[in-house]
């Protein structure tokens, strides 16, 4: 009976120590988790805004870049890998150990730790989504860049053809052959552009209708 009392006292002391340690960890990581979640949501919003901007420009050189968005994604992932992830893994181990010592229903700190771990799982999911979204935005930018370049080439070529003087007999044979070669090259480029566009459409991008419209224009 004395042994049981001693063991119970040791357990209570260990629970108190583990609870205090867990409290410090939760207090340390929770604000960082919340800040990163907010940043990830802001990045998703800004990525959507950047994508909308692609649809309004008239020239390839006016397309907004994505370097800032890519840097923000990398910074968030670095913040996770270089510090936060290790802390959360430690928190998970401590929370599991505390549950072994004390049922969660009797230990509010254990429940708080589980909420923190759920927030961590949510952040990981958010970061996966933003990484995929930024990568997709890069492909969308390439699509609009190539589309605008092709539109520009088409207009320049049309202007060249119609700029021939009315009294002339049209393009000379060497010019026609050169133009045919260029057109063949552009057709191959269009096939690649169409494939890239259809891939974005297949992914059900929110600009799918506009992508399809641009392809039909060409």
From TrEMBL:
Name of this chain's protein: Uncharacterized protein
Domain of life assignment: Eukaryota
Keyword Membrane: no
InterPro entries registered for this protein in UniProt: Spectrin/alpha-actinin, Spectrin_repeat
UniProt keyword terms in alphabetical order: Actin-binding, Repeat
MF annotations from Gene Ontology: actin binding
Species: Callipepla squamata (Scaled quail)
């Amino acid at each position: 009976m004395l042994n049981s009392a001693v063991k119970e006292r040791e357990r209570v002391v260990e629970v108190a120590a583990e609870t205090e340690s867990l409290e410090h960890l939760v207090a340390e990581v929770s604000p960082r988790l919340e800040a990163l979640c907010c940043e990830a949501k802001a990045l998703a919003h800004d990525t959507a805004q950047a994508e909308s901007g692609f649809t309004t420009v008239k020239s390839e050189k006016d397309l907004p870049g994505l370097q800032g968005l890519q840097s923000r994604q990398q910074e968030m992932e670095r913040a996770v890998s270089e510090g936060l992830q290790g802390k959360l893994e430690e928190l998970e181990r401590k929370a599991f150990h505390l549950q072994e010592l004390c049922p969660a229903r009797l230990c509010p700190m254990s429940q708080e730790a589980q909420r923190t771990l759920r927030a961590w799982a949510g952040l990981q999911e958010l970061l996966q989504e933003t990484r995929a979204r930024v990568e997709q935005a890069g492909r969308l930018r390439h699509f609009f860049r190539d589309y605008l370049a092709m539109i520009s080439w088409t207009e320049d070529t049309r202007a060249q053809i119609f700029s021939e003087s009315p009294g002339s007999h049209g393009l000379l044979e060497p010019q026609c052959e050169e133009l045919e070669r260029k057109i063949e090259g552009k057709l191959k480029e269009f096939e690649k552009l169409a494939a890239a566009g259809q891939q974005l459409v297949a992914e059900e991008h929110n600009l799918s209708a506009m992508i399809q419209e641009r392809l039909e224009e060409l």
